[in-house]
Write a structure and sequence with these properties.
alpha/beta, 6-stranded parallel β-sheet
Length: 340
């Protein structure tokens, strides 16, 4: 019997319920993982609200796509992992088919990777969505080169902060954006060389000022909407814009004249479809990221941890946009009178 996070109707974090369930033994190619920590992602809020790319299967839908724990059982034919292995769960499974938020889950063994020695379950749960997305959108899709300048929107998210570290590993200069001044110092502490406060500064003008009039080489955008026009104006001739999110909720208009007149490239990136589902791209990304993780140049910033009993509160914090870094849920049972 394991406690599992489920929901029966669309809505916000208040719809989440913690239920006891018996899990079946893993089938062929599957593994049963005792989950010790799970990382939260903004896409899960969209999924919970019925605004994601796929619909939840109600009632009794599960939630969560990445985490870390210990393999407790394996199905027939599994060779990737063994019972007792410490593993991270890659966010490679369609959201409507998995649910990592809970004390145990059954996943394809192919979605598991070993946790490097000395790295915690919480760090492993915070790593793969953020750093896989950052590496894929900048290196794979964005063709980042040493010495270039990268502009990152949605910069206080775990993906944004991972992007700072991946870019700096390439010797790139990082410009972050934030709406207000409250997160400027935190973003600089997290690795941004420059921060543009978009409610107070003209994004394109400030980006060109930082780059001495040339514009940025690469934009990584999680916002979408009207901002894309300003991002195109901030991009150097021949530069690249990678779209990987739609936090604004508004599909952007194509910056046609910038694309045509200045030779910009506009492309999209999705971690599962464009990286984890492609064996060669996945191998290259995992090898590069594990090397940086072990070396300490890639280190997740964890904003706050919550026990499983407070999972709705954890998602409320994400919805508030107050966090800087990754929000993690841990599976240790909390006594009724436990305090923060």
């Amino acid at each position: 019997m394991a406690r599992i996070v489920t929901f029966d109707a669309l809505g916000g974090p208040e719809m989440l319920q913690l239920r006891d369930r018996d899990l079946p033994p893993p089938g062929p190619g599957e593994a049963l993982v005792e989950v010790r920590a799970a990382g939260l992602n903004r896409a899960e809020l969209l999924f919970l609200g019925g605004r994601y790319l796929v619909e939840p299967r109600l009632p009794g839908a599960r939630l969560g796509v990445e985490g870390a724990g210990i393999v407790r059982a394996v199905g027939e034919g599994v060779q990737e992992v063994a019972i007792g292995d410490r593993v991270a769960i890659l966010p490679s499974i369609p959201m409507q088919e998995t649910g990592v938020l809970g004390e145990a889950t059954i996943v394809p063994a192919s979605a598991l990777v070993p946790i490097p020695e000395g790295k915690s379950f919480q760090e492993a749960a915070a790593f793969w969505m953020a750093y896989g997305t950052a590496w894929g959108m900048m290196v794979q899709a964005g063709r980042l080169e040493a010495g270039q300048t990268v502009l990152v929107t949605g910069a206080s998210s775990s993906v944004g902060i991972a992007a700072f570290q991946v870019a700096r590993d390439f010797g790139a200069t990082v410009i972050a954006t934030t709406r207000g001044p409250g997160k400027v110092e935190a973003l600089k502490d997290a690795g941004a060389h420059h921060v543009i406060v978009t409610d107070e500064e003209d994004l394109a003008d400030r980006a060109r000022e930082i780059t001495e009039g040339r514009g940025v080489d690469l934009v990584c955008d999680a916002i979408g909407g009207p901002m894309v026009q300003a991002l195109a104006a901030a991009t150097a001739d021949g530069g690249r814009i990678v779209l990987m999110g739609l936090q604004s909720g508004e599909i952007p208009k194509m910056p046609f004249y910038d694309l045509l007149g200045r030779g910009l490239t506009l492309t999209g990136f999705h971690l599962v479809w464009h990286l984890l589902d492609r064996p060669d791209a996945r191998r290259a990304a995992v090898a590069a990221l594990v090397e940086g993780w072990r070396a300490g140049t890639l280190t997740p910033v964890i904003d706050q941890t919550f026990p499983l009993e407070r999972v709705a509160e954890a998602y409320d914090r994400m919805a508030s946009n107050a966090q800087v870094g990754k929000i993690v849920v841990t599976m240790e049972r909390q006594s009724p009178d436990a305090a923060d």
